[in-house]
Amino acid sequence: MVEPPDLTIRAAAEALRAGTITSSGLLDAVLDQASRTEAELHSYLTIDREGATAAAEAADIAFSRGEDRGLLQGIPVAVKDNMVTNGVETTAGSQVLSGYVPPYDATAVARLRTAGAVIVGKANLDEFAMGSSTENSAYGPTRNPWNTDRVPGGSSGGAAASVAAGSALASLGSDTGGSIRQPASLCGVVGMKPTYGLVSRYGLIAFASSLDQIGPIARTVDDAVTVLEAIAGHDPLDATSYRGQLPEFRAGIGRGVDGMRVGVVRELSGEGIDADVLAAFEKTLERLRGAGAKVVDASLPSTSYALSCYYLIAPAECSANLARFDGVRYGNRVDGDTVEEMMGRTRRSGFGPEVTRRVLLGTYALSAGYYDAFYGQAQRVRTLVSRDFASAYEHVDVLVSPTSPTTAFELGARTQDPLSMYMSDVCTIPTNLSGDPSISVPVGLDGEGLPIGFQVMAPALGEPVLFQAAAEIERLSDFEPLRAAEAGA
Amino acid sequence: MPIDIDIAYVARLARIDLSGEELARFGSQLGVILEHAAKVQDLPTGDVPPTAHPLSMVNSFRPDEVRPSLERSVVLDQAPASEDGYFRVPPALET
Fold first, then answer.
1. Which residues contact B63 (CB under 8 A, 6 or more apart)?
2. pLDDT at A489 (0 to 100)
3. What is the mean pLDDT of chain B?
4. How far apart are CA A468 and CA A455, in angstroms?
5. CB contact at 8 A, A105 and A84
6. What does the alpha-carbon distance between residue A231 and residue A313 come to, in Å, rounded to a whole number?
7. ipTM metric
8. CA angle, corner A15, sides to A13 and A17, nearest 5?
9. What's the whole-number mean pLDDT along residues A458-482?
10. With a cut of 50, which residues of chain B have pLDDT below it?
11. Do A364 and B10 make contact, defined as CB atoms within 8 angstroms?
12. Catalytic, out of A43, A80, A122, A200
């Protein structure tokens, strides 16, 4: 018997339509699970009990009238707290925004509501999505539901942990350098970064605008597609939103991988990757071969520069984007005698150490005399990374690598050494630079029982082949998701 | 070699009012991160054009039509201080 908090969206949607559960009952089960585990896990910053209850009741009324807006109707989901929600506090994990109640919804949030989803609350994150462990949240860390001594990854750590723990059936995360895929990997769930521009960024509190993308975290590839279908599509409120025809996301699912050309990225699949992670990776490659895939060697030579490139481009964009938190229009203010003194004090007290570090780094990389040597050069390297991907896709359909070099590490293990924390994203950053879609699928456990993720990458708008490969990897794997009853033990 | 930067000048540009101890700590951390980031300079890029953005789109226009926006009072409610329909800040110029 599958307990309600363990249901996939697909199974819950069937039960809702068969009348064996109600949306209100499903929400109660999820809220009960949250009240049992949240004191330990802290995956939510805000639980909107009132709003969620009203949305679940509305979904039940819709079902009773025969109104059906699709698979998400009546499904409890979490939203990372860097997406604004009308009337519900949105902090981005930062002190500078504590108490901020937005007067509008992000487009992705509005689309979830239109699809009938029940928004349970706002998930914890590294401050302004800057981090790989959720330890940079100004409101305290989230813990990994598989082992509470470990981090859930980040920055969408709360969004991944809530899905793994059964306090949401799916969630929205955002991914600038791996912030959906890496926590999904560490929490044993599916996390997907869509092609840049596919999901509107309107109402996503900007970190690095040319890299940020909203995407789904779910228990299965099928559920991730269901969430993506609800949130993707052109939005006139985001000038970088993709205007063309959307791909048929499900076109390849169930077709297997017979004859598919799978390129193993040499630079991301050897040195620096933990032995257990590599073993699970190799085992998955073996299964793909067994299912008829042509697994070949692939090389992205410039990716060895991708991490350096990213840690110039992302901070440069962040330093510009976070200029808006100056104590004038929203958020908190620390007073001063002049406007400059007020801004300096506001930002000193409002930003945590990692955000301060990145704003300073970006300010330096953009300052007169250093611009060409750092930011300008990083942008040229970005072109080379994209060209490497384009050359590789002349020979293969998808590229693969581990999602994260390690499984979940202990809280505090990397907080004193920023560079070691940055290495957590070495496998995920390249597709943020290229703008291509990528996904993490859980494929096994390490010797300590911690989940291991497998990353699939595809060319821009290649979501159909991405999901085709990911669904088959999921089917071939013997990975068992965490049961809600075991979460946070 | 970690890169030596004028951290007090950078903090001033970024409008973050840091103490002497914080400046020293961030200065040395940034030096180490920049030493790693400077690796991008090892890659010959010659006449490779820069990528500012993953999409090749240039301009994205919408019809120039007047549409409703948020109420002024709703927006000002979010501000730390406002007066007569404006955001209120301390003096920007010496009087």
1. none
2. 62
3. 90
4. 13
5. yes
6. 27
7. 0.94
8. 70
9. 97
10. none
11. yes
12. A80
